Amino acid sequence: MTDFTPTEMMTIAAARQLTSRDVCFVGIGAPSAACNVARLTHAPDITLIYESGTIGTAPDVLPLSIGDGELCETAVSTVAVPEMFRYWLQGGRISIGFLGAAQLDKFGNINTTVIGDYHHPKVRLPGGGGAPEIATSCGEIYITLKQATRSMVEKIDFYTSFGHGDGGDHRARLGITTKGPTLLITDLAIWRPDPVSKEFTVVSLHQGVTRDMVQETCGWTVRFADDLEQTPPPTELELTTLRDLQARTAAAHGGSKKGN
Amino acid sequence: MTDFTPTEMMTIAAARQLTSRDVCFVGIGAPSAACNVARLTHAPDITLIYESGTIGTAPDVLPLSIGDGELCETAVSTVAVPEMFRYWLQGGRISIGFLGAAQLDKFGNINTTVIGDYHHPKVRLPGGGGAPEIATSCGEIYITLKQATRSMVEKIDFYTSFGHGDGGDHRARLGITTKGPTLLITDLAIWRPDPVSKEFTVVSLHQGVTRDMVQETCGWTVRFADDLEQTPPPTELELTTLRDLQARTAAAHGGSKKGN
Amino acid sequence: MAQFQSLADAVRDNLKHGDTVAFEGFTHLIPHAAAHEAIRQGITDLTLIRMTPDIVYDQMIGMGLAKKVVFSYAGNPGVGLLRRMRDAIENQYPRAIETVEHSHAAMANAYEAGAAGLPVAVFRGYKGAGLKAVNPDIKSVICPFTGEELAAIPAHRADVTFIHAQKANAKGDVLIEGIIGVQKEAALAAKRVVVTVEEVVPDFKDLHPNLCILPHWTVSAIAVVPGGAHPSYTHGYYARDNATYLDWDKISADRELFTAWMQEHVLDATPEVFAERVKGL
Amino acid sequence: MAQFQSLADAVRDNLKHGDTVAFEGFTHLIPHAAAHEAIRQGITDLTLIRMTPDIVYDQMIGMGLAKKVVFSYAGNPGVGLLRRMRDAIENQYPRAIETVEHSHAAMANAYEAGAAGLPVAVFRGYKGAGLKAVNPDIKSVICPFTGEELAAIPAHRADVTFIHAQKANAKGDVLIEGIIGVQKEAALAAKRVVVTVEEVVPDFKDLHPNLCILPHWTVSAIAVVPGGAHPSYTHGYYARDNATYLDWDKISADRELFTAWMQEHVLDATPEVFAERVKGL
Prior knowledge:
The complex is a heterotetramer, with two copies of chain A (260 residues) and two copies of chain C (281 residues).
Chain A: H1 6-16, E1 23-25, H2 30-40, E2 47-50, E3 54-55, H3 69-73, E4 77-78, H4 81-90, E5 96-99, E6 103-104, E7 110-111, E8 114-116, E9 121-124, H5 131-137, E10 140-145, H6 170-173, E11 181-186, E12 189-193, E13 200-205, H7 211-216, E14 223-230, H8 236-253
Parallel strand pairs in A: 1-2, 1-5, 5-10, 10-11, 13-14
Antiparallel strand pairs in A: 2-3, 3-4, 6-7, 8-9, 11-12, 12-13
Chain C: E1 3-4, H1 7-14, E2 20-23, H2 32-40, E3 46-49, H3 54-62, E4 66-71, E5 75-76, E6 80-81, H4 83-91, E7 98-101, H5 104-115, E8 120-123, H6 131-134, E9 139-142, E10 149-154, E11 160-169, E12 174-176, H7 183-188, E13 192-201, E14 212-214, E15 221-224, H8 242-251, H9 255-267, H10 273-277
Parallel strand pairs in C: 1-15, 2-3, 2-11, 3-4, 4-7, 11-13, 13-15
Antiparallel strand pairs in C: 5-6, 8-10, 9-10, 11-12, 12-14
Helix pairs in contact in C: 1-2, 3-4
């Protein structure tokens, strides 16, 4: 086991949560890296789905976009986008959806739409894309996020996607039958919602991380589990797999092109 | 020009109504023969669609069913059946739909469902299949039928598909925006709906057919157009094309097989 | 997860008395071998869903397996009527059956809605049609933007769907090509999916990326039954046996002839006979 | 009926000031060359529909062509924000634009409903989501069987849809393969359809029967523009130019740099330059 970065730990901790039986709706960035590390290590039969319609992909390189060519070339099948959203996502066939966040609250509600007022935003962010329905149609939701007080906030500016709302049985009260956020993996810790209140609770600290470090980078008062665990550090295989994947990716996407 | 049967005249008269610009939803039997005769004579670029999902087919042999293999093999594209009904039929992309009838009334309403009461039928017929929506989603409807008092009736037992209802603007009152039945071709005559009342009116008698012959085989009091025409008899080309097609078809479908 | 099984085991594990079941295939790829196995196992009180009941349900109805049929075209395509189904409806022979009748568009939309996880299919249909008056499952919704009244019927959600397909690969992914009908929708709309295939190949590596494929994790069981669609057909393998469809009109017209035929060709037969039947087609 | 035209003629004949237009392609097959031609022709007051506005709309918005944008993800995929679109929303530069924001699922369903000739798309969506409160086009219908409240939004019905595809045949049938996105739906939902293609081949005789094809009679105009999707890509022809997507972040961050880039690479260019751009990809 060598040195590793907090982001590498986050990605690998997320990868470990996945099994060969999972069907994952993968987003770009950390989720894509985590899912492919899982596929290349302990979960070779995991099914990865990107919302471009590619089902069962096995890219050699991480895609820059969710519609890169290699996703299609290695997929079991590539379907139209309406079919993707109707038969596969809405049809309840995805076990795990990954979401990132610009702002996250302690109940797993996510904002990637605007900072400030919706109609007069301070910052116009990209918006939801698939997130509003990923959040409610997938069996459960895993969130990955680098901790910062700017992003882990007491109150988000906009509900791009619904987590546990105000907590408790808020999902059920809206008629949502899926579990919602069941896992938050940051660069510092692993969090799970309290079974009753649904407030995210730290259940495992990554190596070298203290409670204070978690609290200092989080905008709400952090709850820690009584039986707080320590996240095992990345194994040699995990780290090598992730770094090789990222090296292949960097080589493939290149930097600035000559001309044009 | 040789001798011909009334059914041949019916098929050829229907074929003549079609052009290379038409997109036809084809049923089995006379419509299929008519559409393919048109394609093989004056309308080579006509688009034939069968509800099995085959778009732009050009079969060498008339299919026994709407899903025979040759339809797919010669099609421009074969789509799923939900797509066929949603994007192509409901989407308003079919200019002409063909329907046959077990019972037909003078307003082009059709019954192919039951003779007698629906819940206690004297004869249970096959039912509508695609007809209910063909009748309302196609630009216009052509009906082919061999005349008989049993099938051309004052009142049909069941509205499998809607023609002009009680006549007049009944379609518009139901919110239907397509033209409905604009042509009835029988083995004896060509009929068109009156522009106002929508009652089918004989506009052309096939060769050798009298007004009495039409009335004797029709269960309602027949209206004839003031400027009643005579249907030109089949040309050599039309007749040869139809008979060759039917000969190829008979050879292909064979009779009873040995064994099994 | 797809399990490779014998047809007898696949039917036994997935089809239960009283189930709602779809045997789909639009003229092409009708899963006759699977239906014959259900008949041999004597599984009854079934609710049968199919757009065109075709010979496959005429046989199941004639053998008394069905208590209810949901359908849109009860004909022998290109030939005429379904005589065993008629006998059940008109004369309650061999038993009374309940019928729920739709249009093709409605049935296709109901499978689509089932695959899409929706409770209801919404489409423009049944305008002026008589079925609205006799089928209480036909309701409507109003478009909140235009005020148009659209047809609404319940989504199909079968307990199990049976289909026949060209190929499975070693993982259990299933390929359907040619006239693909409503099989993908019927499969994804069901709780369990049983697929009979012509053959198993190692992988699908050289296939076009956009073909109709059911990934292995959407399939419950796969049974290899060459010829398993006969007298329907399998694009790329054998042609439709139109002569048998024509013959069926006579066989099904007579209760005794039907019973004798079913005894010889179904009850006393095995899935292996299907390969023999498609030789030369 | 498909007419083979130059790109300039195809755009001139089919895109009018004030039109509602979709340039579709999900990451793959984005019709950049057609958009550049629209920019050169200075067609303004457009309502632009697209799931991910991407660079293609960032450029059109930055050049002041858009009065309204209907979208679901305003990002530079995998890179970050769309800076020209942000500038228009945050600072009304170069003009104010109206936005109608949806989720991907909603946009895909709205195209599907448009292709299906329906006024409304019905799906399970927006539960607990904030967009419901800020987009008055998001309404609901109640399932008449279960009572479930489902989302309802207006179908997309563009005046014209532009797409890029691999091939047309001599008749004008169009083949799309690989990541097929929502192009078939976007095309069938529009009154007019303009397709740029990599090449024209005599016929499609040996293609698989179930490929995504728009028959010639659904297409208004076809223009041959090799490389016409760049920096997006065409499966089977050239790869996505990810470096250009990364570079765009810098170019679009600065108004003057953007203007100079558009002058050189769009206004002073022709469709022929696209073939050059994809060499080596």
